[in-house]
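Can you make up a protein sequence with its backbone structure tokens?

===
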Amino acid sequence: MSGSEAARVALDQDEGISELDDGETTASVRSSILQNREQYGRRYHAYKDGTYHRPNDEAELDRLDIAHALFAIINEDRLHLAPLKPEPGRVLDLGAGTGAWAIEFAEAYPSAVVVGVDISPTMSEFVPPNVQFEIDDVEDQWTYSKQADYIHCRYMVGSISDWPKLMRQCYDNLNPGGWVEFQDFDINYYSQDGSLTEKHAFRRWLVLCMEAAGKVGRTLRVGMHLEQWVRDAGFTNVQVFKVPVPIGPWAKGQRMKRMGLFNWTQIFEGLQAVSLRLFLNVLGWTQPELESLLVEVRKDMKNKEIHSLYDV
């Protein structure tokens, strides 16, 4: 989601998978794809090592499940915003993560055929019969034998090097009349009351993350570009929604408080996971230097006088 100016946030003073993929055009999963490696005390996937900078250990998978719950709050418990038919047909979930969304969608639409794709082998083994997970890089050339009716792509910020190419692949692999839905962050923390400044460690850390991501060909400001990328790929009937998401439970209203709390938690718990490879491998920092910065970042995040947020 991206688009027009976000609203102001008020501060609270108080069957068969073969239908989609017949297996003839998809490479078989090799044992190497399922391997992992240890680095900096965290576990990372070994397939195309380095293309995804976050770990895939249990702590990170727990954080991804929190992020899934966050999107449920943002979307008011809707699994999709696209106006899908009661029987959606063939569905492709890009960047499936733990598989939570794909599983919930498959349960809600038992006639659908759902394929979740991720570069890391982190999906659940216990899935509905109409779900299949594949380990693959969505930036490679797609080889699906049949088109999809709905493509879902969420929270891929920092993971894609060529977004326009990904959009074109979606366009080329979508049936006429089908829908593609992108939901992602514009990770540019700000405050509407001036309480978050460039002097804060939270902002300094983010700017450094942006710098490191840029050096490896990634952007953290995906949300602000989604609409143009989608239109450039040839899609029509483009609908854009923009939601300001608080970081912390400081905003008015029960929904906004829950949104802020879940968002704060997934960011706070993921600080090290996001930072390690970006700072140590890309920026050349030492691990003690990074941990020292993160101590200050955590202090800022716990400061109730800072009312930070960003847009989705």
Notes: The first strand starts at residue 36 and ends at 39. The radius of gyration is 19 Å. Helices lie at 58-74, 100-108, 163-172, 201-215, 226-232, 254-282, 287-302.
